[in-house]
Design brief:
The chain is α/β, with parallel strands linked by helices. The protein contains three helices and eight strands. The protein is elongated and about 80 Å long.
Length: about 170
């Protein structure tokens, strides 16, 4: 019983705060040929100006580590879209009542939701080949979001999401 409780607690703590990322890309693309990047000039990220700067700083640092350089005439343009939505918790407590005797039976069950809706941020990053004007790579992440985070926490969380997004770039 002790091992079971420990396993459940471990699962709960390790699953909280983790970004989930889905990738899609053009499998005919040679990603090693891309070395420079820039952002679309008319980018509408859906983030506040401060969060947009934090995200772009995280992207610049991570792309620099991947060997990319910022350029006025880049190989790749980056587009960013972000939205926040409420996700319903899947946790319920079930209360059941039943009885029966002879050939007659009955029962009542009620599911009581535990906790409220949580905020989730969806972040989409697109790489568009500047010469072909074609989408070549896309990552969409979902991660927990809290409005009351401090600026330092926001920067740290955005960097963690960017690190997770680019952990599988370039695609193999």
């Amino acid at each position: 019983m002790r091992i079971f409780l420990f396993s459940v607690l471990l699962l709960v703590f390790t699953s909280c705060g983790v970004a989930r990322v889905n990738y899609d890309y053009d499998n005919q693309t040679d990603f090693t040929s891309y070395t420079t990047y820039n952002y679309f000039p008319d980018i509408e990220t859906g983030l506040s100006q401060l969060d947009e700067k934090r995200l772009m700083d995280a992207l610049d640092a991570t792309l620099g580590e991947k060997g990319f350089m910022f350029a006025e005439e880049p190989d790749v343009f980056i587009n960013i879209k972000s939205s926040v939505f409420k996700s319903q918790q899947g946790n319920n407590v079930g209360v059941g009542l039943g009885g029966g005797g002879g050939n007659i039976g009955g029962g009542v069950s009620i599911g009581i939701p535990v906790g409220g809706p949580k905020l989730t941020r969806e972040l989409q990053i697109d790489f568009v080949d500047s010469n072909k004007d074609m989408l070549i790579w896309q990552a969409i992440s979902e991660s927990p979001f809290r409005e009351g985070d401090t600026p330092a926490e926001k920067s740290k969380k955005l960097q963690a999401v960017v690190d997770k997004i680019f952990s599988k770039y370039p695609p193999k």
